[in-house]
């Protein structure tokens, strides 16, 4: 399975890197491919290292203005012209999506896939991995949108929330009939 992970390229502390590394190792040991922003810095590097060391494949999609930070030695690296093309390629190459901790870029990527699902343009499973309660406020906001009728589909059809890396991978594998 090709799993797209949206996440930060920032250097983060152990409460974020440990679960990210754990998810990466599960992904690699499961024989899956990481589809990610292609960066070789910060949390993106942590996840790519974990997948690679556990035997998984690396499929990166960088962008021209960040190509100097692209990971050397990835199994495949695509350089997109701009961020919009990068998002499109990431989603095209993925069977499923995991949203990890990140900043505005991660949030942009997350809302893009949710908009596509909301409008029936994709049915790829999406998991929000809420490490260390990072997305508690966002999860509450999504639930309010659902409760107050802002979403044309139930939130449970758009994304799955979990706090544990193993739960994220189990949900994806089950959703795609791999379990």
Strand residue content? 15-25%
What is the H/E string? EHEHEEHEHEHHEH
Which structural class is indicated by helix and strand composition? alpha/beta
Gap from first CA to last CA: 12 Å
Strand order of the largest sheet: 4-3-2-1-5-6-7
Account of the protein in words:
- The protein has 179 residues and is α/β, with parallel strands linked by helices.
- It is 45% helix and 18% strand.
- It has helices spanning 14-29, 42-53, 83-93, 104-118, 136-147, 155-158, 165-175, and strands spanning 2-6, 33-36, 57-63, 76-80, 96-99, 126-129, 160-162.
- A 7-stranded parallel sheet has the order 4-3-2-1-5-6-7, sandwiched between helices.
- Helix 1 runs parallel beside helix 2 (42-53) and helix 1 (14-29) packs parallel to helix 7.
- The longest helix has 16 residues, at 14-29.
- It is globular and about 45 Å long.
- The relative contact order is 0.17.
- The mean pLDDT is 96.
Strand-helix topology:
Blueprint: E1 2-6, H1 14-29, E2 33-36, H2 42-53, E3 57-63, E4 76-80, H3 83-93, E5 96-99, H4 104-118, E6 126-129, H5 136-147, H6 155-158, E7 160-162, H7 165-175
Parallel strand pairs: 1-2, 1-5, 2-3, 3-4, 5-6, 6-7
Helix pairs in contact: 1-2, 1-7
């Amino acid at each position: 399975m090709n799993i797209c992970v949206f996440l930060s390229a920032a250097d983060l502390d152990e409460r974020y890197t440990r679960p990210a590394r754990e998810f990466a190792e599960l992904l690699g040991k499961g024989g899956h491919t990481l589809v990610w922003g292609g960066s070789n810095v910060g949390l993106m590097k942590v996840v790519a290292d974990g997948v690679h060391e556990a035997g998984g494949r690396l499929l990166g999609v960088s962008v021209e203005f960040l190509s100097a930070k692209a990971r050397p030695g990835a199994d495949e690296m695509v350089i997109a012209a701009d961020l919009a093309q990068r998002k499109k390629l990431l989603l095209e190459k993925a069977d499923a999506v995991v949203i990890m901790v990140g900043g505005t870029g991660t949030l942009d990527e997350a809302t893009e896939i949710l908009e596509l699902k909301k409008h029936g343009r994709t049915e790829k499973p999406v998991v929000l991995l809420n490490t260390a309660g990072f997305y508690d406020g966002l999860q509450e906001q999504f639930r309010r949108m659902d409760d107050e009728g802002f979403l044309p589909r139930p939130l449970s059809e758009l994304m799955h929330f979990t706090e544990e890396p193993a739960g994220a991978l189990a949900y994806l594998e089950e959703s795609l009939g791999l379990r």
